[in-house]
Amino acid sequence: MNQLKTILFLGALSALLVAIGGAIGGGATWLFLGIALAMNLGAYFFSDALVLRISGARVLAEAQAPALFGMVRDLAQRAGLPMPKVAIMADPTPNAFATGRSPSRAVVAVTEGLLRLADARELRGVLAHELAHVQNRDTLVATIAGAAAAAITHIANVLQWGVMLGGHRGSDEREGGSGAGALLFAFLAPIAAVMLQMGISRSREYLADESAAKLTGEPLALASALAKLQRYGEQMLQAGAPAPQPVTASLSIVNPLAGGGLFKLFSTHPPIDARIARLRQIADAMGQRV
């Protein structure tokens, strides 16, 4: 199912790029078709490295964080997964994400803020959630979705400025394109990319929460971690901390970029309250006191 989602997602984003080329006219359609093909290959083979670079995550050796490695190794063995690489981000905002196109190439990344904030049980729950994404083969879809959506957004931004600064001449209209059409597609493409990204990611968060709860046997520890991460992340952003990159925000266990009201419609994550409520239901079913 995730392979099908990946194919559909890349196909839809490729169609967006080709549509932008068609709106520009001339030979742009073929140019953007080539960009789409290159993006597909690059997203599949190099999106994990791209995400690590964008996030500033640094892959660690076991001697640098033996306790963290021990926790990840124990959870990976319980889940029947190979040991992933472990990375850390010099970011005070508490968060974590997993990336990699397969379990054998997986990387679990945590922020310095998470290591300072979460206690051992909560950290274990967060790591289990990220390994659940690896186990459920979500990392390929999520990583490609994030990298491709970012590429679409950057290309669209370049086009917007190019059209507005006169880079697209009226003579191109004779070749089948128009500046107005190019500008319209440049504005709509990032929205469409985010909507596609959202559609395949929100349900996977619920599944990863449930899988993590079963893996650790402590759903309330993950619920506590989610509440802490969301609360402290929002406080830090309000205090002026730099916002995470949209790519890594969509991959992370919580998305501090998500707001309330209408902004919830454009969030790649389900509401934290809803996730916590589900984890409490799981705990109740396990006979644990909520």
Structural write-up:
The protein is mostly helical and about 290 residues long. The chain has one domain. It contains ten helices and four strands. Strands 1-2-4-3 form a four-stranded mixed beta sheet, with helices on both faces.
Q: How are the strands of the largest sheet arranged? A: 1-2-4-3
What is the radius of gyration computed over CA atoms, rounded to a whole number of angstroms? 20 Å
**What structural class do helix, strand and pairing data support?**
mainly alpha
Main sheet makeup:
4 strands, mixed
Give a brief rundown of this model:
The chain is mainly alpha-helical.
Q: What's the SSE blueprint?
A:
Elements: H1 2-24, H2 28-55, E1 58-59, H3 66-79, E2 85-89, E3 96-99, E4 107-111, H4 112-117, H5 120-135, H6 138-164, H7 179-216, H8 219-238, H9 246-251, H10 272-285
Helix pairs in contact: 1-2, 1-6, 1-7, 2-6, 3-5, 5-7, 5-8, 6-7, 7-10, 8-10
